[in-house]
Amino acid sequence: MHSIDVIVVGSGPNGMAAAVTMARAGLSVRVYERNPSIGGGARTAELTLPGFRHDVCSAVHPMALASGFFQKFQLHRRMELVVPEVSYAHPLDGGRAGIAWRDLERTAEGLGRDGAAWRTLFAPLVEHAAEVAQFTGSSVLQLPRHPVTAARLGVRILEQGSQAWNLRFTGEEAPAMLTGVNAHSIRPMPSLSTAAVGLVLATHAHARGWPIPVGGSQSIIDVMADDLRAHGGEIVTDTEITALAELPRSRAVILDVSARALARIAGAALPERYVRSLQRFRYGNAAAKVDFALSDPVPWANEQVRAAGTVHVGGTRTELAASEAEVAAGRHPLSPYVLASQPTLFDPTRAPDGAHTLWAYTHVPAGSTMDPTEAVTAQLERFAPGFRDTILASTSQNAVQMEAYNPNYIGGDIAAGEPSLRQLIARPVLRPDPWRTPGKGIYLCSSSTPPGPGVHGLPGYYAARSALADEFGMTTPPRLGQD
Q: Which of 25, 113, 115, 388 pairs with 79 at a CA distance of 20 to 30 A?
C-alpha cells in the first residue's frame, strides 16, 4: 500500500506547479522543502533593513503571462501583476538609452534610423507571440504546431546568433538593447542559444510585457500553495531529502532538483547509463547578487530609464560581448553586465514610504567568491550619477552563497544547467519525454528539464502530466483555473 499518491521534492515554481496539477487531479500530494520557507527561486524577504522587502532570487517574470501553465492556472486572476509600460531599458554613456516600450511601434519610433530594422525583426514574432510561447515553452523534440512562426524565429536566431548580428543596425542603442536581453543566458555572444533567449524574451516584452508581482515573487508561490492546500495537499518544510529511501512510499516522486542532485538522490533506482548522462550534464557560469535599500529612486541619467521595470546595464553591444567573454574565460570583467530592477516604482508596499528597494545581479565565473557589491555599485553609478548617495544599506550573495541558498544553482548557475544549444535540446538527456526518468515512478521537474530556466512552472506541469498518464492512467490534464 502507498500512504501518499505523489511526493514532490522542492517547492520552487516548478515543484509547486507539479504539486498543484497532481492535487487538482484528485491525488494525495505532499511537498518536501529543505528550507524553513517555501519558494525556491521565488522568495521574498527582508534582507537589508526592516520594512524593505527584497526578492531573494527572481524579481521580474517575462514568462508569467506567456506561460501555458500560468494561463491555465489563471495566475493573473489570483494575484496582482503590474506590467510596466517600459518593459526594459538600456542606458548608454552620455545620457543616451534604448527604451523597449511594451508598444513595439513606440519602441521603433524611439530608435531613429534603426527603428525600421527593429520593427522588421520583431513584428512577425510579436504578432504571433502566443505561437512563439507555445513553440519555445515545450520540448524541442516535439513538432511545432505553428511551423511558419517557428521558421521565422529560427531565421532570426541564425542572424542574431552569428557574426551577422550587426548587419541590420547602424546605431548603438538597438543592438545594445538586444544584447542586454541576450545576456540573460550568461553565455558568450553571439551564439545561437543566446540569440534564442534574447529574441523570445524581447518578443514577450512587446507582446504582453514583463510583469512584476505585487508583494514580491513570493506572492506567486503563495497563491500556488493556497491552491494546493485547498485541494488536499500538504507541505513539509525544514526537511532535506538526500535519498529516496528517506521518503514514505508513494506511486510517484517528482523532484524539483538539479540533474546532479537527481543522480545523487535517486541514483540507486536509475540505470547506470542514465546516471552517467546526468553526471555529464554541464553547468554554466554564475550570477552574484546585490540588494539595496535606497532613500530615493535610482537617479538614472536618462529620464525614460526611470520608468523601466528592468534595466540592463553595461554599455554597448561590444562592451557586453567582451564582458561575457571574460566571464566565460573564468575572469571577473572590469566593466560587468548588471541586470537591475526597482520594483518599488510599481509596488510601493515593498519599502517604507518614500524609500525604495533595488534588486541587481551581475555575471561572474562559476564558483566565484568575490563580493559583487562594489562592481555593481560602480557600474550603476556610471549610468546613474549620485546613485551611491541614495544607498541606505545593502547585502550581497556571491556565486558560492547562491548555491548554498539554493542547491539547484550549481556553482551559482541560476539556470540549473548551461543553456547551450546542445543542452536546450538534450535537457538533461535526449529523450522524447525528458521529465520521465527510466526509474519507476521517478520524474524530474526542475529547470534542468525543458523548457529551461524562468518562473513559468512549465517543467513541473509537464512532469505532472507525464506522471498522470504513466502512473495513474489519466491522459486528460485536470482543470487548473478558478472558473
A: 25
**What are the tens digits of pLDDT across the range 408-461?**
999 999 999 999 989 988 999 999 999 999 999 999 999 999 999 999 999 999
Does one domain contain both 295 and 270? no
How many structural domains does the chain have?
2
Where b means 16+ CB within 10 Å and e means fewer, 290-303 reads bbbbbeebbbbbbe
Closest by Cα among 130, 148, 183 to 316: 183
Contact (CB, 8 A) for 57 and 33: no
If you search the block for the grid coordinates 520552487, which residue do you land on?
12
pLDDT per residue as tens digits for the range 164-219: 999 999 999 999 999 999 999 999 999 999 999 999 999 999 999 999 999 999 99
Of 356, 383, 405, which marks where a domain is finished? 405
Contact (Cβ atoms closer than 8 angstroms) between residue 84 and residue 90: no
Give the Cα separation of 7 and 18 in Å (integer).
Answer: 10
Domain enclosing residue 16, as ranges: 4-42+216-282+416-472
> Read out DSSP for 290-355?
EEEEESS----SSGGGGGEEEEEES-SHHHHHHHHHHHHTT---SS--EEEE-GGGT-GGGSSTT-
Residue 395 three-state SS: strand
Q: Nearest CA to 373 among 290, 459, 305, 268? A: 290
Per-residue three-class SS string for 62-104 = CCCCCCHHHHHHCHHHHCCEECCCEEEEEECHHHCEEEEECCH
403-415 in b/e form (b: 16+ CB < 10 A) is: bebbebbbbbbbb
SS3 at position 267: helix
Do residues 383 and 298 touch, judged by C-beta distance below 8 A?
no
**Predicted TM-score of the model (pTM):** 0.95
**Is 410 a member of any domain?**
no
Strand pairing of 338-341 and 356-364?
antiparallel
Q: Are residues 291 and 354 in the same domain?
A: yes
The CATH number of whichever domain residue 260 belongs to comes to 3.50.50.60
321 and 269 within one domain = no
Within this chain, do residues 292 and 425 fall inside the same structural domain, yes or no?
Answer: no
Rounded alpha-carbon distances, angstroms, from residue 413 to 30, 326, 358, 362, 408: 28, 16, 21, 12, 8
Which amino acid, 134?
Q
Q: Is the domain of 295 the same as that of 242?
A: no
Let me know: does 31 contact 38? Beta carbons within 8 Å: yes
Report if residue 179 sits inside a domain: yes
